[in-house]
Amino acid sequence: MIQMKDVYKKYPNGIVAANGITVDIKQGEFVYVVGPSGAGKSTFIKMMYREEKPTSGDIIINGINLAKIKSKKVPLLRRQIGVVFQDFKLLPRMNVYENVAFALEVIEESPKVIRKRVMEVLDLVGLKHKARMFPTELSGGEQQRISIARSIVNRPKLVIADEPTGNLDPDTSWEIMNIFKEINSRGTTIIMATHNKEIVNTLKHRVIAVEGGMIARDEAEGDYGYEI
Ligand code: ADP
Ligand code: ADP
Predict the structure, then answer these.
(1) Which residue from 214, 218, 221 is spatially nearest to 18, judged by alpha carbons?
(2) ipTM exceeding cut-off 0.95 for this assembly
(3) Least enclosed by CB within 10 Å: which of 70, 91, 116, 153?
């Protein structure tokens, strides 16, 4: 589902954030991306949804070569990928329902389909009863659950999460992990950058460690491997 070959990324300031990355991730995998701050984790995953473009090398997602697609095709690619952020990025003036429905409204799904799908995903994250609340009325964990609902409402085959538990307490982080576990069990690929040692060492999955823009480790059921 994801193939990167000799991917190199140099930012305009001269920093090399990806220095020859070659990796293959299959449909249905759950992958943790770990490594020290500044190692290049975010750059690695941002290139997968074309938030950043590689300087050289190939990135193929679901058969689409990102190096070859035109800018106007990027929204089409993004619809096939759900993205979850550490700081949720919910729209503050929209309620929970509207935040989740938004992704379907832009692709002009019928109101009936939108209603059904939004309620399905809100149910999956356990927040159907808060559909009319606004993001500021929710706890951090609830906001993250809404952002996960938003990420999957288009039914993407790939969900990318950049430190999704970074702002949450341990119990809430585990609740969030259970939702990702459920989504993955339905066949969706999950790529998650994380600093959460306890989660990585307990809920075992493939671990890719990035250091200095390179893959330092790639293990089927690896450990977090750093002190913090
Ligand atoms: P991580 O997610 O592991 O903390 P990043 O991918 O964010 O690492 O950053 C890798 C390196 O690239 C760091 O040295 C960072 O300062 C640099 N970097 C990240 N984004 C940019 C940018 N937009 N412009 C310039 N340098 C950047
Ligand atoms: P948690 O401890 O799970 O992070 P909180 O203590 O922040 O949760 O919130 C508990 C409940 O109160 C949640 O269901 C949340 O929706 C509700 N809540 C939190 N803050 C507000 C607020 N400012 N207005 C309305 N409801 C709120």
Answers:
(1) 214
(2) no
(3) 70
